Amino acid sequence: MPEDCLLEMRLKYRRTLTLLVDEVDTGLGSIIECQDYSSVIHLFTITAYVMRFVRVLKQAVNRSNSHVESLSIKPQELARAEAEWIQESQRLLVSDKHFPV
User: Fold this and answer.
1) Would the pLDDT of 83 be above 90?
2) How large is the greatest C-alpha to C-alpha distance in the chain, in angstroms?
């Protein structure tokens, strides 16, 4: 078979992957509905698991770390989840039209 035909066949069956990313500042409240949880500890625990999931996905994409973490949430992860919710509350409070500036 001529080389041109082989090249055309290879190009025809080549897979193409296109990733379109639209970066929007959504905030934690748009991802997790805090009203759905009965206690703040439960909310922080779920938030810590979600944040861990995102971190593990990022590591898998970057192939930077392949070890598997334990299933229980560490105190540092809970503290980070709590800090994220405090920052989210502050962002919402400042954007409220009734908040005195």
Assistant:
1) yes
2) 77
What is the pLDDT of the chain when averaged over all its residues?
78
CB 25 within 8 A of CB 95: no
Average the pLDDT over 26-47 and give the result: 86
Give yes or no for a contact between 6 and 43, defined as CB atoms under 8 angstroms apart. no
Question: What is the Cα–Cα distance from 55 to 34, expressed in whole angstroms?
Answer: 21
Do 60 and 90 meet the contact criterion of CB atoms below 8 Å apart? no
13 φ/ψ angles, rounded to the nearest 5 degrees = -100, 10
Please state, in angstroms and rounded to a whole number, the distance separating the CA atoms of residues 28 and 48. Answer: 12
DSSP 49-86: HHHHHHHHHHHHHHT---PPPPSSPPHHHHHHHHHHHH
